[in-house]
Amino acid sequence: MNERILRVLEFNKILEQLTNQAATTLGKDLTSKLKPSTDLAEVRNLQKETDEAAQLLRLNEEVPLGGIFDIRASIKRSVIGGVLSTEECLDIANTIYGGRQVKDFIEKKEEDLPILKELVKRITLLRELETQIKSCIDDHGHVMDSASVKLRSIRSSIRTNESRVRDKLDNYTKSNSNMLSDAIITIRNDRYVLPVKQEYRGSIGGIVHDQSASGATLFMEPKAVVDLNNQLQEARMKEKQEIDRILRELSEHIAQSESYLTENVMVLAQIDFMFARAKLGKTMKAAMPKMNDQGIIKMKQARHPLIPVSEVVANDVEIGETYTSIVITGPNTGGKTVTLKMIGLCTLMAQSGLQIPAFDGCEMAIFEHVFADIGDEQSIEQNLSTFSSHMTNIVNIIQQVDDKTLVLFDELGAGTDPQEGAALAMAILDEVVSRNARVIATTHYPELKAYGYNRENVINASVEFDIETLQPTYRLLIGIPGRSNAFEISKRLGLNNSIIDQAKSHIGVDSTSVENMIASLEQSQIQAEKEYQEAYENLLASEKLRDDIKRQWHQFEQKREELYKKAEEKAEKALQNAREEAELIIDEIRNMKSSVALKEHEWIEAKKMLEDAKPNLSSKQQRKEHNDNKSAKELHAGDEIKLLTVNQNGTVLEKVNDNEYLVQVGIMKVKVKRNDLQAIGKKKQVIEKPLTTVKGSNYHVSTELDLRGERFEEALLKLEKYLDDALLAGYPKVSIIHGKGTGALRTGVKEFAKKHPRISTYRTGSMGEGGSGVTILELK
C-alpha cells in the first residue's frame, strides 16, 4: 500500500487511536509502524491474535502491563561494555518483574488462549538477576548500603566525618554569631562552609569558596575543619568508586542475560500490541471479519470508524459475488464520499489485523492494491487543474489495476463538460470492470443512472434523501440509482408550481422515464422494508409463543416427573406391605404344618390371606380379565408382554405350565399367571446378555453436535432434537460444539442444560476436548 492511499483514506488517524490504546512504549512503537498486509495467512493470524485478546476483554480481564519499559538501548549498551545507571538497572528489574506477572496471568487462565499461552512460554523469569538488582538499588534509584560490605563501611565513615564537621561548625555559629551573616551551616563545592561577614574575614581565617552577589558575605571553610572536609571528600570519592563497581558488576550480569531480556521485551511488546488492537475494537464496537482472497466483501451494519457511534449511520455493503462494481449516483452532500471512504478504510483495517465496526459475521477481502481518487486533487505546484489532476491519478491507477485490486472513484469524470465527463466515466468504468477489479464509484451524472442496468457485474446504488426534512439520511440503497430531487426540494421550499411544471417540460422523455423508474424503485424498496418489518414482528411474536409453549411443556414435564415419583413411592409402599403380609402368611403356614390336627378352614383362611397380600396398583390401561385360560392366546419365549399388575413391559423367557410363565421385567425374573400378562409384540429372539444397553431408532447418531454458524433459535431446536436421539441411543455423554465467538451460543447451551430434566451435569471442554468452544453434557 502506498503512503498516498493511507493518507487519503485517513489510516493515520486510526493508527493514532491505536497508539493511544497501547500500555507501554514498546507497544506504541509497534502500533505506530502498523501497515496493511497482503498475505492472507498473516492477516488471518493477526485477526486471531486480536480476537484472542478481545476474548479476555469481553470477560473484563486485562493483562497487567504496568511497570514495563523499553530497555533495548540499555541492554545494547551493557553488551558493548557500558556501565548502566541505577535508573536503567531498575527499569530492567521492573521489566523482568512485569514479564513474570504477565506470564502468570496468562498461564492461570482457563480459557482457550493458544496464541497468548504460546507467547508467554518464551518469557524467561530471570528471578536471580531481578533479585541482584533489587538488593542493590531501592525503588527510588539509590544504591543501598546493603549493596556491599565495603559500601556500608564507607558510608558509615562519611556519616561520622559529616557529624564531626558539623559539630565543629556548630561551635563557630554559637561562639562567633556576630561575625556571621546568618547562624547556619551551608555547602559550597561539596564542602561545609559558614556565611562570614566581609569585615570578619581575618578573624575567622580559612579558605574562601564563594561570596554573595553584593560581596558582603563570604562563604568560608575555617582552618579547623579543612582536614575533616578533606577526609569527607576522600570518603565520598571512595563511595562513588564502589557504586561504579557495583553498577559495572550488575551491567555485566545484564549483558550475560541479553538474549533472554531481548526475547522477553519482544514478547511483551507483541502482547501489548495485541491488546491495543483489541481495545480499539472494543471502543468501536467492532467485530472480527472473516478474511478471503476472492475479492468478496460482506458487511452488515458497517460504520465509518472515524465518526462517533452516536452520529454515524450504519449500512449494509456487499460486493464480489453477484457483482464486482457498485456505482453510487445522486446529488452532492448525500454521504456518497463517506460511504466510499468507509469501505476503503475498513479494508485497510482488516488487512492490518484490526477488527472493523460492523456486526458479527462480516467478511473482508485481501487486496494487493487499494487505489482511491477522492477529494480535490488540484495541484498548484504542477500547474494542473482539478480535472487534470484527477485524470493523472486515474491514468496511474489504470496502469496497475488487476483482479486483486480495490478501486475507489469519487465523482468520476467531474470537472469537465457533463456529457464528455459522463462518457469518459463510463469508458473508465468499463476498462476497470473488464479487468475484474472491485470498483466502487460515485457520480452525480444522470447518464450513469442506467449504467448498472446495461452492464454485467455492475449494480446501481444511491444514498437516501428525505424530501420531508430536506436532509440526507445517509442510508445506502443497493440496487436503486439516485435522483436529483430538485423539483421536490424546490416545491417544498415554496417555488411556484407553474414554474416547476415549466421546468419539467424542458426535460426529455428519457430522463423523465428514468426518474419515474427510480421513484418506483424507491417506493418498492420502502414497501419491501415495511413488509420485512411486519414479518420480523411476526417472527418475534412466534418466537415468544414458542418460548411460552416450551416453558409450559417444561412445567408439564416437571409435574409428570413429580407424579411418577409419587407413584413409585406408592408402589414401593404397597410392595413393602405385601412383603410384610407374606411373612405373616409364611409363619402361619409353618404353624399349621406343625399342628397335629390340620383343619380345612385354616387352609382356606391362609389362602385368602395370600390373595389379599397382592399389592393393589393402578395402571393407565385397564387390566383385562381372562377367565378362560384356554381361550387366551398362547405366549412363546421372546414375546414382548405387559405385566398388568405393575403396568411394566417385559419379555417372556419360558412357559412354566399351562397357566404360568417365567418373564423378565427390567432386571427381575418372576413367575406370573397368564391372566396377568398382555401380549404387545411379536415374537423376538431371546437376548441372553444383561439388558444394560438400550439402542433407539437413532442409535447411529454421532456423539457430538456442531452448532457453529447457526442462528441462536435454530441452534437450540437442533440441540433439543439431538438430545432426544442421543438419549434413545443410550449415550452417557455428548459434546456440543458451539465455538467461541461472542459467547452467546455457549451461554444459551448452558442455560438449556440447566433446565433439561435428562441432563445430570454439564461442563466446559478440557484442552483435549475443544476448550471453551465445546460444552460436555452428562446424560441420565
List the topology elements.
Blueprint: H1 3-8, H2 11-21, H3 25-32, H4 40-58, H5 72-79, H6 86-107, H7 114-120, H8 127-136, H9 149-175, E1 186-188, E2 191-197, H10 201-204, E3 207-211, E4 217-221, H11 226-256, H12 258-283, E5 290-292, E6 297-302, E7 315-319, E8 325-329, H13 336-351, E9 363-365, E10 369-373, H14 386-400, E11 405-409, H15 418-434, E12 438-443, H16 451-454, E13 458-466, E14 471-478, H17 486-492, H18 497-505, H19 509-594, H20 600-612, E15 639-643, E16 648-657, E17 660-665, E18 668-673, E19 677-683, E20 704-706, H21 712-729, E21 733-737, H22 744-755, E22 759-764, E23 774-779
Parallel strand pairs: 5-9, 8-12, 8-13, 10-11, 11-12, 20-21
Antiparallel strand pairs: 1-2, 2-4, 3-4, 6-7, 13-14, 15-16, 15-19, 16-17, 17-18, 21-23, 22-23
Task: Summarize the structure in words.
The structure is a single chain. By secondary structure, this protein is an alpha/beta fold. The strands form six sheets. Strands 10-11-12-8-13-14 form a six-stranded mixed sheet, with helices on both faces. Strands 18-17-16-15-19 form a five-stranded antiparallel sheet, with no helix packed on it. Strands 1-2-4-3 form a four-stranded antiparallel sheet. It has six domains: about 5-125 and about 255-280, MutS, DNA mismatch repair protein, Chain A, domain 3, CATH 1.10.1420.10; about 145-250, Orthogonal Bundle (MutS, DNA mismatch repair protein, Chain A, domain 3); about 290-490, P-loop containing nucleotide triphosphate hydrolases (Rossmann fold, 3-Layer(aba) Sandwich); about 505-615; about 620-690, SH3 type barrels, CATH 2.30.30.30; about 705-780, Ribosomal Protein S8, Chain: A, domain 1, CATH 3.30.1370.110. A hairpin with a 4-residue loop joins strand 15 and strand 16. Mean pLDDT is about 80; it is low at about 375-385, about 615-630 and about 685-700.
